[in-house]
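Deliverable D2.4 — example input (C-alpha coordinates):
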Protein backbone atom coordinates (compact mmCIF):
# COMPACT_ATOMS: atom_id res chain seq x y z
CA UNK A 1 0.00 0.00 0.00
CA UNK A 2 1.37 3.40 -1.03
CA UNK A 3 -0.11 6.28 0.94
CA UNK A 4 -1.09 9.60 -0.59
CA UNK A 5 -3.43 10.51 2.26
CA UNK A 6 -1.37 13.30 3.86
CA UNK A 7 2.06 14.91 3.92
CA UNK A 8 3.20 13.78 7.36
CA UNK A 9 3.39 10.02 6.96
CA UNK A 10 7.20 10.00 6.98
CA UNK A 11 9.62 11.06 9.70
CA UNK A 12 12.11 13.82 8.90
CA UNK A 13 14.67 14.81 6.31
CA UNK A 14 17.92 12.83 6.78
CA UNK A 15 19.95 15.98 7.52
CA UNK A 16 17.69 16.68 10.49
CA UNK A 17 18.00 13.15 11.82
CA UNK A 18 21.79 13.31 11.48
CA UNK A 19 22.03 16.62 13.28
CA UNK A 20 19.74 15.48 16.09
CA UNK A 21 21.88 12.37 16.55
CA UNK A 22 25.16 14.29 16.43
CA UNK A 23 23.98 16.80 19.05
CA UNK A 24 22.10 14.30 21.18
CA UNK A 25 24.35 14.48 24.25
CA UNK A 26 25.00 18.20 24.18
CA UNK A 27 23.83 20.13 27.22
CA UNK A 28 21.81 23.23 26.38
CA UNK A 29 19.36 25.52 28.21
CA UNK A 30 15.72 24.49 27.92
CA UNK A 31 12.51 26.07 26.64
CA UNK A 32 13.93 27.47 23.41
CA UNK A 33 16.65 29.55 25.04
CA UNK A 34 19.49 27.53 23.49
CA UNK A 35 21.84 28.67 20.76
CA UNK A 36 20.26 26.39 18.15
CA UNK A 37 16.91 28.14 18.50
CA UNK A 38 18.66 31.51 18.38
CA UNK A 39 20.56 30.57 15.22
CA UNK A 40 17.43 29.17 13.57
CA UNK A 41 15.48 32.30 14.43
CA UNK A 42 18.22 34.43 12.90
CA UNK A 43 18.19 32.39 9.68
CA UNK A 44 14.42 32.89 9.47
CA UNK A 45 14.79 36.65 10.01
CA UNK A 46 17.32 36.75 7.19
CA UNK A 47 15.00 34.77 4.91
CA UNK A 48 12.14 37.14 5.78
CA UNK A 49 14.32 40.16 5.05
CA UNK A 50 13.78 41.79 8.44
CA UNK A 51 15.62 41.86 11.72
CA UNK A 52 12.58 43.31 13.51
CA UNK A 53 10.77 40.03 14.05
CA UNK A 54 10.01 37.77 16.96
CA UNK A 55 10.43 34.09 16.05
CA UNK A 56 9.18 31.35 18.36
CA UNK A 57 9.21 27.58 17.93
CA UNK A 58 6.10 25.66 19.02
CA UNK A 59 5.46 21.93 19.11
CA UNK A 60 2.64 21.78 16.54
CA UNK A 61 0.29 23.59 14.22
CA UNK A 62 -2.81 23.50 16.41
CA UNK A 63 -0.88 24.92 19.36
CA UNK A 64 0.59 27.62 17.13
CA UNK A 65 -2.81 28.59 15.75
CA UNK A 66 -4.71 28.99 18.98
CA UNK A 67 -1.75 30.57 20.78
CA UNK A 68 -1.42 33.29 18.14
CA UNK A 69 -5.18 33.82 18.07
CA UNK A 70 -5.35 34.07 21.86
CA UNK A 71 -2.60 36.69 21.79
CA UNK A 72 -4.63 38.98 19.53
CA UNK A 73 -8.25 38.75 20.70
CA UNK A 74 -10.24 40.23 23.55
CA UNK A 75 -12.63 37.83 25.35
CA UNK A 76 -15.67 39.06 23.38
CA UNK A 77 -14.05 38.78 19.96
CA UNK A 78 -13.83 36.06 17.32
CA UNK A 79 -11.67 35.27 14.31
CA UNK A 80 -12.87 35.43 10.70
CA UNK A 81 -11.90 32.38 8.64
CA UNK A 82 -12.86 30.59 5.47
CA UNK A 83 -15.49 27.96 6.20
CA UNK A 84 -12.94 25.32 5.20
CA UNK A 85 -10.20 26.91 7.31
CA UNK A 86 -8.14 24.52 9.43
CA UNK A 87 -9.15 26.17 12.70
CA UNK A 88 -12.80 25.73 11.76
CA UNK A 89 -12.86 22.13 10.53
CA UNK A 90 -9.80 20.23 11.68
CA UNK A 91 -8.72 21.29 15.16
CA UNK A 92 -11.51 19.82 17.30
CA UNK A 93 -12.73 23.25 18.37
CA UNK A 94 -9.36 24.20 19.85
CA UNK A 95 -9.94 27.92 19.31
CA UNK A 96 -13.43 27.71 20.81
CA UNK A 97 -12.06 25.72 23.75
CA UNK A 98 -9.89 28.76 24.51
CA UNK A 99 -13.02 30.92 24.60
CA UNK A 100 -12.88 32.46 21.13
CA UNK A 101 -15.43 31.82 18.39
CA UNK A 102 -14.44 31.07 14.80
CA UNK A 103 -16.56 33.18 12.45
CA UNK A 104 -16.67 31.25 9.14
CA UNK A 105 -17.08 32.88 5.75
CA UNK A 106 -18.26 30.97 2.63
CA UNK A 107 -15.49 30.07 0.21
CA UNK A 108 -15.63 27.63 -2.72
CA UNK A 109 -11.84 27.77 -3.22
CA UNK A 110 -10.62 27.98 0.37
CA UNK A 111 -9.80 31.69 0.16
CA UNK A 112 -11.52 34.72 1.61
CA UNK A 113 -11.47 38.18 0.09
CA UNK A 114 -10.95 41.69 1.37
CA UNK A 115 -14.55 42.48 0.37
CA UNK A 116 -15.86 39.61 2.50
CA UNK A 117 -13.92 40.80 5.53
CA UNK A 118 -15.12 44.36 5.08
CA UNK A 119 -18.73 43.19 4.69
CA UNK A 120 -18.56 40.94 7.76
CA UNK A 121 -17.28 43.78 9.91
CA UNK A 122 -19.86 46.20 8.48
CA UNK A 123 -22.67 43.70 9.12
CA UNK A 124 -21.58 43.40 12.73
CA UNK A 125 -21.55 47.12 13.47
CA UNK A 126 -24.75 47.81 11.53
CA UNK A 127 -26.64 45.28 13.65
CA UNK A 128 -28.42 47.18 16.43
CA UNK A 129 -27.76 44.19 18.71
CA UNK A 130 -24.00 44.15 17.99
CA UNK A 131 -23.11 44.30 21.68
CA UNK A 132 -24.81 40.93 22.06
CA UNK A 133 -22.83 39.37 19.21
CA UNK A 134 -19.27 38.13 18.90
CA UNK A 135 -17.18 40.96 17.46
CA UNK A 136 -14.84 40.21 14.54
CA UNK A 137 -11.40 40.86 15.95
CA UNK A 138 -8.92 39.06 13.70
CA UNK A 139 -8.59 37.42 10.27
CA UNK A 140 -7.17 33.92 9.76
CA UNK A 141 -6.08 32.52 6.39
CA UNK A 142 -4.06 29.49 5.28
CA UNK A 143 -1.26 29.76 2.72
CA UNK A 144 -1.79 27.43 0.92
CA UNK A 145 -5.42 26.84 1.82
CA UNK A 146 -6.92 23.56 2.98
CA UNK A 147 -7.76 22.77 -0.64
CA UNK A 148 -4.32 23.63 -1.98
CA UNK A 149 -5.11 27.01 -3.52
CA UNK A 150 -2.82 29.98 -2.94
CA UNK A 151 -3.27 33.68 -2.28
CA UNK A 152 -1.67 35.91 -4.89
CA UNK A 153 0.32 38.98 -3.96
CA UNK A 154 -2.59 41.14 -5.09
CA UNK A 155 -5.13 39.21 -2.99
CA UNK A 156 -2.97 39.23 0.13
CA UNK A 157 -2.19 42.93 -0.33
CA UNK A 158 -5.89 43.75 -0.53
CA UNK A 159 -6.60 41.66 2.57
CA UNK A 160 -3.76 43.30 4.45
CA UNK A 161 -4.86 46.81 3.55
CA UNK A 162 -8.45 46.08 4.57
CA UNK A 163 -7.40 44.48 7.85
CA UNK A 164 -5.19 47.44 8.74
CA UNK A 165 -7.95 49.90 7.85
CA UNK A 166 -10.34 48.00 10.14
CA UNK A 167 -7.78 47.39 12.90
CA UNK A 168 -7.86 43.58 12.52
CA UNK A 169 -4.64 41.55 12.84
CA UNK A 170 -4.05 39.30 9.81
CA UNK A 171 -2.66 35.86 10.63
CA UNK A 172 -1.54 33.31 8.01
CA UNK A 173 -1.27 29.62 8.82
CA UNK A 174 1.76 28.44 6.84
CA UNK A 175 1.72 24.74 7.69
CA UNK A 176 2.62 24.08 4.02
CA UNK A 177 4.19 27.46 3.31
CA UNK A 178 7.05 26.05 1.23
CA UNK A 179 4.52 24.46 -1.14
CA UNK A 180 2.65 27.75 -1.51
CA UNK A 181 5.64 30.00 -2.17
CA UNK A 182 7.29 27.60 -4.63
CA UNK A 183 4.10 26.81 -6.57
CA UNK A 184 3.95 27.66 -10.26
CA UNK A 185 2.31 31.04 -10.67
CA UNK A 186 2.92 32.19 -7.11
CA UNK A 187 4.12 35.80 -7.09
CA UNK A 188 4.41 36.06 -3.30
CA UNK A 189 7.69 35.89 -1.41
CA UNK A 190 8.51 35.33 2.23
CA UNK A 191 9.39 39.01 2.43
CA UNK A 192 5.89 39.83 1.16
CA UNK A 193 4.35 37.62 3.85
CA UNK A 194 6.43 39.46 6.43
CA UNK A 195 5.32 42.85 5.15
CA UNK A 196 1.63 42.05 4.74
CA UNK A 197 0.81 39.82 7.74
CA UNK A 198 0.81 40.63 11.44
CA UNK A 199 1.79 37.04 12.17
CA UNK A 200 2.34 33.84 10.24
CA UNK A 201 3.73 30.36 10.72
CA UNK A 202 6.43 28.51 8.84
CA UNK A 203 5.37 24.88 8.98
CA UNK A 204 7.79 22.14 9.89
CA UNK A 205 5.58 19.11 10.57
CA UNK A 206 4.41 18.85 6.95
CA UNK A 207 7.59 20.22 5.43
CA UNK A 208 10.41 17.89 6.42
CA UNK A 209 10.65 18.23 10.21
CA UNK A 210 9.74 15.54 12.73
CA UNK A 211 7.39 18.07 14.31
CA UNK A 212 7.13 21.76 15.09
CA UNK A 213 6.14 25.12 13.65
CA UNK A 214 7.90 28.48 13.65
CA UNK A 215 5.69 31.42 14.62
CA UNK A 216 6.79 34.75 13.15
CA UNK A 217 5.36 37.86 14.79
CA UNK A 218 5.71 41.04 12.76
CA UNK A 219 3.25 43.24 14.69
CA UNK A 220 4.89 44.60 17.86
CA UNK A 221 1.51 44.66 19.62
CA UNK A 222 1.32 40.85 19.44
CA UNK A 223 4.79 40.23 20.86
CA UNK A 224 4.22 41.30 24.47
CA UNK A 225 4.32 38.33 26.85
CA UNK A 226 3.93 35.87 23.97
CA UNK A 227 6.15 33.30 25.70
CA UNK A 228 3.75 33.31 28.64
CA UNK A 229 1.00 32.23 26.27
CA UNK A 230 3.17 29.59 24.62
CA UNK A 231 3.75 28.01 28.02
CA UNK A 232 0.15 28.33 29.16
CA UNK A 233 -1.26 26.85 25.94
CA UNK A 234 1.01 23.80 25.90
CA UNK A 235 3.13 24.83 22.94
CA UNK A 236 6.48 25.20 24.72
CA UNK A 237 8.88 22.26 24.55
CA UNK A 238 11.20 21.76 27.52
CA UNK A 239 13.87 20.35 25.20
CA UNK A 240 13.38 23.31 22.91
CA UNK A 241 16.64 22.78 21.07
CA UNK A 242 14.99 19.82 19.29
CA UNK A 243 12.88 22.39 17.46
CA UNK A 244 15.71 24.84 16.88
CA UNK A 245 17.95 22.18 15.36
CA UNK A 246 15.24 21.17 12.90
CA UNK A 247 14.54 24.67 11.65
CA UNK A 248 18.24 25.48 11.56
CA UNK A 249 18.68 22.57 9.16
CA UNK A 250 15.61 23.43 7.09
CA UNK A 251 16.86 26.97 6.50
CA UNK A 252 20.34 25.88 5.46
CA UNK A 253 21.16 26.05 1.75
CA UNK A 254 17.58 26.52 0.50
CA UNK A 255 16.48 23.12 1.86
CA UNK A 256 13.04 24.27 3.02
CA UNK A 257 12.16 25.55 -0.44
CA UNK A 258 13.68 22.53 -2.18
CA UNK A 259 11.35 20.27 -0.22
CA UNK A 260 8.34 22.37 -1.19
CA UNK A 261 9.29 22.28 -4.86
CA UNK A 262 9.69 18.50 -4.73
CA UNK A 263 6.27 17.95 -3.14
CA UNK A 264 4.65 20.18 -5.76
CA UNK A 265 6.47 18.49 -8.64
CA UNK A 266 5.24 15.07 -7.52
CA UNK A 267 1.68 16.37 -7.27
CA UNK A 268 1.83 17.83 -10.77
CA UNK A 269 2.54 14.37 -12.19
CA UNK A 270 -0.68 13.12 -10.56
CA UNK A 271 -2.54 16.17 -11.79
CA UNK A 272 -1.35 15.61 -15.36
CA UNK A 273 -2.50 12.00 -15.57
CA UNK A 274 -5.89 12.93 -14.10
CA UNK A 275 -6.25 15.59 -16.78
CA UNK A 276 -5.31 13.05 -19.44
CA UNK A 277 -8.07 10.78 -18.15
CA UNK A 278 -10.54 13.66 -18.36
CA UNK A 279 -11.20 13.84 -14.64
CA UNK A 280 -12.43 17.25 -13.48
CA UNK A 281 -11.08 18.83 -10.29
CA UNK A 282 -12.87 20.15 -7.23
CA UNK A 283 -10.51 23.17 -7.20
CA UNK A 284 -7.56 24.35 -9.26
CA UNK A 285 -4.62 23.68 -6.93
CA UNK A 286 -1.00 24.35 -7.95
CA UNK A 287 0.40 22.78 -4.78
CA UNK A 288 0.96 19.34 -3.30
CA UNK A 289 -2.74 18.65 -2.68
CA UNK A 290 -4.79 17.57 -5.70
CA UNK A 291 -8.56 17.04 -5.63
CA UNK A 292 -9.69 15.12 -8.73
CA UNK A 293 -13.24 13.87 -9.17
CA UNK A 294 -13.30 10.17 -10.09
CA UNK A 295 -15.95 7.57 -10.76
CA UNK A 296 -16.51 5.52 -7.63
CA UNK A 297 -15.67 2.39 -9.60
CA UNK A 298 -12.21 3.79 -10.34
CA UNK A 299 -11.67 4.74 -6.71
CA UNK A 300 -12.52 1.21 -5.64
CA UNK A 301 -9.80 -0.13 -7.93
CA UNK A 302 -7.23 2.36 -6.66
CA UNK A 303 -8.05 1.70 -3.01
CA UNK A 304 -6.62 -1.80 -3.25
CA UNK A 305 -3.05 -0.46 -3.48
CA UNK A 306 -3.11 3.29 -2.83
CA UNK A 307 -4.26 5.43 0.07
CA UNK A 308 -6.09 8.70 -0.58
CA UNK A 309 -8.42 10.95 1.42
CA UNK A 310 -12.14 11.06 0.69
CA UNK A 311 -13.33 14.66 0.30
CA UNK A 312 -16.97 14.72 -0.78
CA UNK A 313 -19.61 13.05 -2.91
CA UNK A 314 -20.34 14.87 -6.15
CA UNK A 315 -23.21 12.74 -7.51
CA UNK A 316 -24.49 9.19 -7.36
CA UNK A 317 -21.43 7.78 -9.13
CA UNK A 318 -18.58 10.27 -8.57
CA UNK A 319 -16.57 11.49 -5.58
CA UNK A 320 -13.87 14.09 -5.02
CA UNK A 321 -10.78 12.77 -3.27
CA UNK A 322 -7.41 14.17 -2.24
CA UNK A 323 -4.04 12.91 -3.33
CA UNK A 324 -1.38 14.54 -1.17
CA UNK A 325 2.34 14.35 -1.88
CA UNK A 326 5.17 15.34 0.45
CA UNK A 327 8.82 16.32 0.70
CA UNK A 328 9.62 12.59 0.87
CA UNK A 329 7.34 11.22 -1.88
CA UNK A 330 9.38 8.99 -4.19
CA UNK A 331 9.32 9.33 -7.97
CA UNK A 332 8.74 5.59 -8.35
CA UNK A 333 5.71 5.72 -6.02
CA UNK A 334 4.14 8.45 -8.12
CA UNK A 335 5.03 6.59 -11.32
CA UNK A 336 3.21 3.51 -10.03
CA UNK A 337 0.10 5.54 -9.19
CA UNK A 338 0.21 7.35 -12.55
CA UNK A 339 0.42 4.10 -14.46
CA UNK A 340 -2.47 2.62 -12.48
CA UNK A 341 -4.66 5.66 -13.16
CA UNK A 342 -3.88 5.41 -16.87
CA UNK A 343 -5.17 1.83 -16.96
CA UNK A 344 -8.34 2.39 -14.91
CA UNK A 345 -11.47 1.14 -16.57
CA UNK A 346 -15.15 1.32 -15.71
CA UNK A 347 -15.74 -2.22 -16.95
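Example output (designed residues):
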Amino acid sequence: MILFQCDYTQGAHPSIIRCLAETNLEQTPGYGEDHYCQQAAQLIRQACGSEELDVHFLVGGTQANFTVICSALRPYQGVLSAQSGHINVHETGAVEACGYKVLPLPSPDGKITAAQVEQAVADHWQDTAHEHLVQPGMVYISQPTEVGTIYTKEELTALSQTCRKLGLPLYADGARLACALTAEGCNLTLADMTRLCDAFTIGGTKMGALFGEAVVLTNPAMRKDFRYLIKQKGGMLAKGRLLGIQFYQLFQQDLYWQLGRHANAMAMKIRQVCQEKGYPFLVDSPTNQQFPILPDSHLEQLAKDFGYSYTQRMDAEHSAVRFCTSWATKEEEVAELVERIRTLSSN
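The chain has a mean pLDDT of 97.
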